[in-house]
């Protein structure tokens, strides 16, 4: 019998919150290897194909099959508290064209394992410190560094998962030079997100509410952090819309999050204006990452 084993990772989940961080749980490749060992012990004559699946969480770059990697580079960035961490930037082998040929000059797809930068710690006190004092500025720095390596026709996919940092993304925005500079940098770029976690930033079941499950922060302090982060995020959204008040079509805060307009599980996940146009908000699917 031919068997395809295509698992994701296995992570600790205190109170239902996956700790897909560095040094915790099992990455998809290790899960696939473990399943294969057990299967072969029971059915040694079966033909097994292992295809571990990357979900955008920490270590997703390591799951990409070697024959799909054209180049790999390590970029140093700052973690939430300024600690130096390394993230992988992978350029994928171009897909064959309809004629079956591959041209080196064609546009490339890149994957940035940014989730490694902001991975949730397993220690509740360390997670609390990141929530109270951490910044996403390192995220903006590594995205800027990755974009400097890519060409104007290339696509950069940024892997992200839940983080304890609660600055509403302002640190990343500042690291990219501010709102106007970030919009100018991304305006002619193809940039998307691979989200390992669909939790929203705010709301009763949002990332802020979940802080009480993964940190030593009191519910009252978590609520205050959540309120401030959501306020900052929505101020950025409104400021981005004001930069182009006469723009045509759907107005978005930044091209980096434009994929969220269609990526959610249902239309109800989005806020809409009076014309029924989907708008980015703190309760939008995936904004917790």
Features:
alpha/beta; globular; five-stranded mixed beta sheet; 9 helices; 289 residues
Write up what this structure looks like.
With 289 residues, the chain is α/β, with parallel strands linked by helices. Helices cover 32% and strands 16% of the residues. The protein is built from nine helices and nine strands. The chain has helices at 28-42, 60-63, 124-133, 137-149, 170-175, 179-186, 207-214, 219-242, 260-263; strands spanning 2-5, 47-50, 69-78, 84-92, 109-112, 155-160, 190-195, 271-272, 278-279. The strands form three sheets. Strands 3-4-5-6-7 form a five-stranded mixed beta sheet. A two-stranded parallel ribbon has the order 1-2. Helix 7 (207-214) packs antiparallel against helix 8. The longest helix is centred in the C-terminal third of the chain and has 24 residues, at 219-242. The radius of gyration is 20 Å and the shape is globular. It starts with a strand and ends in a 10-residue tail after the last strand.
Radius of gyration: 20 Å
Average pLDDT across residues? 82
Number of strands: 9
What is the CA-CA span between the terminal residues? 40 Å
- Give the CA-based shape: globular
Q: Which class of secondary structure composition applies to the elements?
A: alpha/beta
**Subunit arrangement of the protein:** single chain
N to C succession of SSEs:
EHEHEEEHHEHHEHHHEE
Record the strand order, biggest sheet.
3-4-5-6-7
User: Count the helices. How many?
Assistant: 9
**Strand portion:** 15-25%
Note poorly predicted spans.
Answer: 248-277
> How is the biggest beta sheet arranged?
5 strands, mixed
- Helix content range: 25-40%
């Amino acid at each position: 019998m031919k068997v395809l084993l295509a698992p994701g990772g296995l992570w600790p989940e205190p109170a239902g919150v996956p700790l897909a961080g560095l040094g915790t749980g099992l990455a998809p490749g290790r899960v696939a290897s473990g399943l294969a060992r057990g299967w072969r012990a029971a059915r040694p004559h079966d033909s097994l194909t292992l295809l571990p699946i990357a979900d955008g969480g920490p270590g997703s770059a390591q799951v990409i099959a070697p024959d799909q990697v054209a180049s790999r580079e390590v970029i140093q960035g700052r973690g939430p508290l300024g600690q130096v961490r390394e993230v992988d930037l992978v350029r994928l082998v171009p897909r064959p064209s309809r004629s079956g040929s591959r041209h080196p000059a064609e546009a490339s797809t890149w994957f940035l394992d940014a989730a490694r930068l902001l991975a949730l710690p397993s220690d509740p006190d360390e997670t609390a410190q990141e929530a109270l004092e951490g910044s996403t500025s390192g995220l903006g720095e590594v995205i800027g560094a990755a974009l400097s390596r890519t060409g104007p026709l290339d696509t950069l996919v940024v892997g992200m998962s839940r983080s304890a940092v609660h600055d509403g993304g302002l640190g990343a925005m500042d690291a990219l030079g501010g709102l106007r500079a970030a919009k100018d940098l991304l305006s002619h770029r193809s940039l998307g997100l691979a989200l390992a976690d669909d939790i929203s930033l705010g709301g009763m079941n949002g990332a802020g509410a979940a802080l009480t499950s993964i940190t030593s922060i009191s519910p009252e302090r978590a609520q205050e952090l959540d309120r401030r982060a959501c306020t900052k995020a929505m101020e950025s959204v409104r400021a981005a819309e004001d930069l182009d008040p006469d723009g045509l079509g759907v107005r978005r805060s930044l091209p980096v999050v434009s994929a969220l307009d269609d990526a959610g599980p249902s239309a109800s996940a989005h806020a809409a204006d009076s014309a029924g146009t989907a708008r980015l908000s703190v309760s939008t699917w995936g904004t917790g990452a």
